[in-house]
Each structure stands twice: as C-alpha cells, then as structure tokens.
Write a structure and sequence with these properties.
Elements lengths: L1 H12 L19 H26 L8 H8 L7 H10 L1 H15 L9 H7 L1
Helix pairs in contact: 4-5
Length: 124
C-alpha cells in the first residue's frame, strides 16, 4: 500500500508553484462608432429588404378581383375591437357564440360542399 502513495508524492514533487502574472488587457483600437453604424445600417437594410419582399409577394395584380373583395362590396362588415369582443364574451356568452358562428360562415370556407376539405379528407 505504501508504494502507490510514494509514487503519487514523487509525481506531485515535479510540479512547482509559480507566481500568477498580471492580466494584460489589449487596448481597444480606434473608435467603435463606425462599426456600430455599419452594423445598424446592415440591420436596417436587411429588414427593409425582407419587408419589401414580403409585401411584393402578397400584393396581387389590380385586374384580379377576389371573391372576398366582391363580398365586402355587397355587404358592409363591421369589425368589433378586441376589448368589445372580450366584454361581449364575458357578459353574454350566447351572443358571443352567435357572433362567432355568423362570422365563421362568412370567413371560413364551407365544409359541406362537393370540394370541401372534409369531403376530400374522407376520400383518403
């Protein structure tokens, strides 16, 4: 048993403690503002290009009229604000349910037609 302890002590004698040197800090080179301005310009340019690209993808030609646009011309739609909808849901849940049912019939596609999503899924 003494042999491993002696080997360990002999191994540890090889190491000599050293004084800790002072941490050297490199001085900052130049003024950081040009770099910050360049980064801000790249961020603004990237954001504006992505917004432009998204807007370009969503816009449709002027001669193409959608069905939803025709429906909105035929009947005026009144949109309730979020606080008004919340108040209606808290005060009168039956009226809120009726409003949601009426809106879902005008906004969502029909599920009972020949090419409805339910009929297509049921065939698979």
């Amino acid at each position: 048993m003494q042999r491993p302890d002696e080997d360990l002590e002999q191994y540890l004698r090889k190491f000599q403690p050293r004084a800790v040197r002072r941490l050297e800090l490199r001085p900052q080179a130049g003024n950081p503002w040009p770099l910050r301005l360049a980064v801000a310009a790249v961020v603004v340019l990237t954001g504006s290009v992505s917004l432009w690209h998204a807007e370009r993808k969503t816009t449709k030609p002027a001669n193409h009229v959608t069905v939803q646009a025709v429906q909105s011309i035929g009947m005026p739609q009144t949109r309730m604000s979020t606080p008004a909808l919340t108040k209606l849901a808290l005060d009168d849940s039956e009226a809120f349910d009726a409003l949601l049912a009426r809106e879902s019939r005008t906004v969502l596609p029909s599920m009972q037609g020949e090419h409805s999503a339910l009929r297509v899924l049921s065939k698979e």
